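Example 3.2
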Amino acid sequence: MSNYEDWLQDQPAPKKKQAALVVAPIHGVLPYAGDRNPLTRSDTVKRVSTAIATPMTGGIRQVYHFDGESEYAVALDALRSPELYGLEVQLPSLSFYCRQKRKVRTHRFDLRLTFRDGYRHAVFVRNAISLAKRETQDEIDDIFAAVTEDFADDCMVVCTDDYTRAYRDNLRRIWDYLQLADAEADKIVEDAARMTNYWYLSDLIKNCDFEPGRYYQAAMRLIGQNVLWTDMHGVIDYPSRVALNA
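Structure, written as tokens:
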């Protein structure tokens, strides 16, 4: 027997594909409602599971599973809007005719966003390399053409490359601070932003006189609500340049 064959015998047997992880019931939290569970093991993609409350869930937190950090970031970006009513992930499969393959295929949209006026956006999330391919563009056209009014009012494409690591980190922190309601601090910081002079976030907070930690959180909420502007692709901190949005 050759040395190569000896080496082959010493190798571990290929691992069997394991079932997706299942989150056990959580007291006081609504269960996951997606059509597919994406929590499979992966060496390249970080799955995300979290609990989020929206007006659609009656203000009760519900479990959401995301295929990766990019889909989660898109959801957090949408959740910043006070006009967002509901969030759905891993929607049921949609059948469409693929012109390239000349057969009927299925697609599952990553997200569906419902706003307070009832308008629904179906969201197609993909990276820039894939979106640049003609075959992907043709596939998107075929998928969007198959969407009916009972599924969504319109469809949109989101490029994951627009969500840099710093942007994703900022969105996570903003979302955490948005859960800590403090209307008094928010008003003080907004008034200071409108009536005082500042350049950096640290300057704005100093103009609020005291409790810098509390007003930092308020500033992050105002950034999340687009009352204040800053560079979302840089880590938001005291030296960050901030300005009042027009």
